[in-house]
Write a structure and sequence with these properties.
Blueprint: E1 4-12, H1 17-27, E2 32-37, E3 40-48, H2 54-71, E4 77-84, H3 85-91, E5 99-101, E6 105-109, E7 121-125, H4 137-152, E8 159-163, H5 169-176, E9 181-186, H6 189-201, E10 209-213, H7 216-222, E11 229-233, H8 236-246, E12 255-262, H9 266-275, E13 278-286, E14 289-296
Parallel strand pairs: 6-7, 8-9, 8-11, 9-10, 11-12
Antiparallel strand pairs: 1-3, 1-4, 2-3, 5-6, 12-14, 13-14
Helix pairs in contact: 1-2, 8-9
Length: about 300
Amino acid sequence: MVSRWWEIQVLSDPALEDLIFWRSQNFGCRGSSSQVQGTARLVKAYLPQDQVQQSDLQTLAKLLSQDATVAGFTSPTVSWQVVNEEDWANSWKQYWHPQEVGDRLLIYPAWLPLPETTDRLLLRLDPGLAFGTGAHATTQLCLAAIERQLGRETGGEIAIADIGCGTGILSIAALLLGADKTYAVDIDPLAVTSAQESRDLNRIDPSRMVVEQGSVERLGELIDAPVDGIVCNILAEVIINLIPQMSAIAKPTTWGILSGILLNQSRLVTHTLEQHGWTVSALQQQQDWCCISIQYHTKLS
């Protein structure tokens, strides 16, 4: 039982929020929160005190500074302090509230009582250690794009691959919005556990939402036929590395929704897509992030 935690506070430009969440998750943080502070964003992340030393936290601060520089922003201000168990357990949750996304979804914290009435599809989450609460621009862009895409689908069973699934939020949303089956993979075992718990929380049959550890190679082993759609909300650098592999699970009618991409990175992502048989059909923007909708157009021999 952990009784003492490092609380890492990162004050930054709002556009860096998702990068900070991603970096802190990779660092091993368990739970995080975000709040507006003037024109900036204050992100708090937590990990057990005995897991790292102050020198490790200094390394994290340097990595966050490097991330900001690469993205073209001023380096964030990073500080840390030790807090008690009860402070950690409640701190990040108090800032996360129900969130309406798109026209049909309501992302709802699992620890709150269910709403008496709602005309929206209820997607319950208790993210724990994994990324993806629906509160961030990249996730909201993905969810709205999935809603639009599935609203255009007519006939046939729809199977979707969710690469880097985190909490499983995109897979669950896709199933609520009309997909028949999703294959959710993540290289982080903590994310796999979180996605499985999210699936159970939303009472989804495991046969409809398959959750496994791995990446595109694992998807190739799980599916019986190419998928109808691919969703991926990670970061541009990771997506660029995944693009050459995506054709292995695609067919001429496969569509994709990619997010976690800063606007100034979108040109490199779209160039890589075009080199590997994908056409960009739309680009949506929120803050400094964008979501790219794509279509596979491999030539039939």
